[in-house]
TrEMBL record:
Lineage top rank: taxon: Bacteria
This protein's name: Protein of uncharacterized function (DUF2501)
UniProt xrefs under InterPro entries: DUF2501 (IPR019637)
């Protein structure tokens, strides 16, 4: 979510709010805690973990219209998962 917020890729405007709530719930509210979590650090770089253990690098999609649409869709899905995690 941090990557999506930084790149302004999610179609919802409250990404930072959801991100902060998820970080609090995961016990990652401080930068020191965040740096210890490899999943969080991958997320900052735009690396998403797939079900099969593979990673998708959002930066590799480029800045074409199609690349931006795919990144926005991915960010929307990550945000939706974050909201579901909170409820």
């Amino acid at each position: 979510m941090q990557y999506c917020a930084k790149e302004k890729l999610a179609s919802v405007t409250n990404v930072d709010n959801v991100k902060n709530q998820v970080l609090d719930k995961l016990g990652l509210s401080t930068p020191a805690e965040q740096k210890k979590d490899t999943g969080y650090m991958d997320g900052i770089e735009g690396l998403l973990n797939a079900k099969d253990g593979q990673k998708l690098d959002l930066d590799s999609l480029g800045n074409t219209e199609l690349g931006k649409k795919v990144k926005t869709k991915a960010c929307d899905l990550v945000l939706k998962q974050g909201v579901n995690f909170l409820s």
